Amino acid sequence: MVRFENVKKAYNDVTVIEDLNLHIKEGQLVVLIGPSGCGKTTTLKMINRIIEPTSGSIYIDGEDITKVNPVMLRRKIGYVIQQIGLFPNMTIAQNVEIIPKLLGWPADKRRKRTEELLHMVDMSPEQYADRYPSELSGGQQQRIGVLRALAAEPPLVLMDEPFGALDPITRESLQDEVKRLQKKLKKTIVFVTHDMDEALKIADVIVLMKDGKIVQAASPEELLSNPANDFVAQFIGKHRLNDGLEIETVEDVMRHDPVTVTKDIGTSESVALMKRKGVNSLLVVDDEGRLEGVVTVDKIRKQGKAGRNISELIDKDIRTIPTNTNAREAFDILIEDKLDYLAVVDDKNKVKGLVTKTSIVKALAEVVWKDNGHE
Amino acid sequence: MSEFFAFVVREQDLIISNMLRHIYISLLAVFIGTLIAVPLGIWLTRKRKIANYILGITGIIQTIPSLVLLGLALIIFGLGVKPALIVLSLYSILPILRNTYTGISEVDDMYIEAAKGMGMKNIQILYMVEIPLALPVIIAGIRISLIYIISWATLAALIGAGGLGDLIWTGLASYDKNLIYGGAIPASILALVVGALIGFIQKIATPRGLRR
């Protein structure tokens, strides 16, 4: 369906896509995923020529897309963007009918198609066709965004983080719907996301990218059981955990977002921060993120003076463990030494996380219930 | 006061004919200004680099005192309606140009990207997306322009354009209070009524989905 051959994209001297080769087969839902700046969106936008590659070729059904007029090319490719982009001056029906109209479909055929599409997502045409986008919820709007892309029955649909701005519940139901529509209508879908949950849920093939290169392209199953390298393993880390694999190091169980401050922060500001985050101590780090010590709410209350910073109140005597410490070992230390927490640091003494008693409970729960291990 | 009413009744034909002429000159000037400013404003959104220069130049025209410009027009084109129309049209350009430029520029990129991604040609993006979304702002520019021009058209009477200004200037020259009021009051009412009227048009022109 879509084939990338030695595709490269550079802006001036900055290469964003490096020698990309990818074959997207007909009827597949292919998810492009990776950290921001990995080139996933650029890859997607090259398919409908919103972005032109610097070199290399892209083929759709064997036809070099640079030989096709971009306007004609795009009318045959559905396109859904993250910001939805329904035209606020047009009704729902008018929005859905844009491409059929551009293609010159007669009015009654367009209307019939719109009604059919609305029925497909359980939105009654009588109720919604003549409303304006601003009268719909975000989830409903993006449903229409998807329908608009499907209106002219394109064999190929591109989706650029379509559900990124929606709340989790709406997102899930839209994921289900897209998967269902794709199966039913046998569309080829290229889908960009940075959310591994989403990718694992909907993808036939996951293409994991990093720094403009494909790291691994495989089915979700294959990706989980046979990650190509450490980067892949790390990217899908918590999901492997769910698959019944053992908790190994503290990295698997720690809180990844400990509250850290630098020592020039004021005492009252610190207390306010603790209150807001619901903690009773803050990790103090230098500008590079290296651990300097800890400051507790008790110490600030007893010794702190308003208007002063916390530099004199830092407790340097803090127990740290390296990131590769065995999780069980960490729990033993925590319990035996009757500590409240352990700071997890890397080899440069940079703070990576925090292990608390809650971490133990969560880890236990995951093993017992194989629950989704969100932090 | 009763003296003034008597004057109005007596001279109603004169006042009405001058008012119609005033309306005619103002509308025509703004119409010409719109014909120039809207396409120019749209074109400038495609040429961002020169946009600031052009907007700057029209800004400078705006700051030249109108009497000076009218004087210049008098020297170049002589007396009559034509020089007045030229000057008033020039003045009407800036508010419309600025609003057209801003209105089109501020259409959110996501709409342009969506439109492009769906396979609209540039001209289709312009008239199906950009102009409808910018229309309320463009009309606001026309409204500001028209209100200005209605008041400045009173000055244009100095170079023979006629209109309500004629009454005011004649009144000033002959110390005739009634003539001055007879010109100034209708001109003020005209500005208010036209402003309200265009405000109403603006409301209608705003796509329903965009109204708050």
Give a short summary of the structure.
With 375 residues, chain A is of the alpha/beta class.
Question: Could you name the key traits of this structure?
Answer:
heterodimer, A: Rossmann fold, CBS-domain, 2 domains, 6-stranded mixed β-sheet, 16 helices, 37% helix, B: 212 residues, mainly alpha, 9 helices
What can you tell me about this protein's structure?
By secondary structure, chain A is of the alpha/beta class. Chain A has 2 domains: 2-242, P-loop containing nucleotide triphosphate hydrolases (Rossmann fold), CATH 3.40.50; 251-369, CBS-domain, CATH 3.10.580. Chain A is 37% helix and 23% strand. Chain A is built from 16 helices and 16 strands. In chain A, the strands form 4 sheets. A 6-stranded mixed β-sheet of chain A has the order 6-7-8-3-9-10, with helices on both faces. Chain A has a 4-stranded antiparallel β-sheet with strand order 2-1-4-5, with helices on one face. In chain A, helix 7 (138-150) runs parallel beside helix 8. Chain A is elongated and about 80 Å long. The model of chain A is unreliable at 241-245 (pLDDT under 50). Chain B is mainly α and 212 residues long. Chain B has a single domain (2-207), classed as MetI-like (MetI-like fold, Orthogonal Bundle), CATH 1.10.3720. Chain B has 9 helices and no strands. In chain B, helix 8 (164-173) packs antiparallel against helix 9. Chain B starts with a helix and ends in a 7-residue tail after the last helix. Classes of the chains: A alpha/beta (375), B mainly alpha (212). The interface between A and B is medium-sized, with 28 and 21 residues.
